[in-house]
Amino acid sequence: MQFVEEIVVDEFLPTVRSLLAGELRERGLTQSQVAEVLGISQSAVSKYAHGEVATNDRIADDERVEALVAELAEGLASGAVSPVQALIEIEVLIRDLESGGDLLAQLHEEAVPELADHSASFRVHDPESDLRTSERVLSSLRRGLRILETASGFASLIPAVGSNLVACTPDAEDVDDVAGVPGRIFDVKGQASIPADPEFGVSEHVATVLLAARENGADVSAAVNIRYDEDLLEALDDHGNVTAEFDESGDIAESIADALEAEPEATVLYQTGGMGIEPLIYVLGTDAESVADAVRELL
């Protein structure tokens, strides 16, 4: 009898650690530094480096594993990602790969063929649990924030009121279901300053715009606000976005409803300001990474 956790411990983790160790060494970290970052011994790092630890080629060649390893190696090497954050993101990927029919589930069924004949939908860990859903949202948001933080010139797009990149759970109903940056993102001497890790329930304004767009049929789960500029609107339009104007001086939900009724496919909402109201552009998307990428294309 073999549990899926044994597949994770015996094949997935050694493979990922080996890949991460190699990537970190290529980025100039010493064996002792790699050991400290990964929480393993220097002798273990040496074994990974010399190919003395068995790895699984199917896991190593999976595009999602490759992408996450490269992303985490870059973040860990630069200090932009903490070991705890890396652990969470790897944990999220593990749960996704354990879901019915995916890579770890396949390896488990191959190790225990009787599982393939089981009539019920076999799933050791429920990837749709509230905890897993929240972790996926936060993980996506952290990746989006890293894109913005490292994008040259992003600070120039931050309005006086600050920016916030937010993302919500699939069944979001109120601001508590939307994660964002506590205190917003500000331009500090030409650099984007992200004061803290993202949390749920800390954004009100951008979260309200996102929720209003979703309530009125927009298939979006993330948003960011940037300064208003006609040239930026034109650039967003050139990149394939549909733009729609709304009036922020009144009821935001009603104004956005009217804007989306006129432009149902809108992925960019904007308002041109008023007495005491700074003009802003809101870029919407299916996840935090795609929103951040759309903003990076403007630079």
Automatic annotation (TrEMBL):
One of its GO terms (molecular function) is DNA binding. PROSITE patterns: HTH_CROC1. Gene3D superfamilies: Class II aldolase/adducin N-terminal domain, lambda repressor-like DNA-binding domains. Keywords: DNA-binding. Residues 26-48 form the HTH cro/C1-type domain. SUPFAM superfamilies: AraD/HMP-PK domain-like, lambda repressor-like DNA-binding domains. SMART domains: HTH_XRE. The keyword Zinc does not apply. It comes from the Archaea. InterPro entries: Aldolase_II/adducin_N_sf, Cro/C1-type_HTH, Lambda_DNA-bd_dom_sf, ThiN. Pfam families: HTH_3 (PF01381), ThiN (PF10120). This is DNA-binding protein. It comes from Natrarchaeobaculum aegyptiacum. The lineage of its organism: Archaea, Methanobacteriati, Methanobacteriota, Stenosarchaea group, Halobacteria.
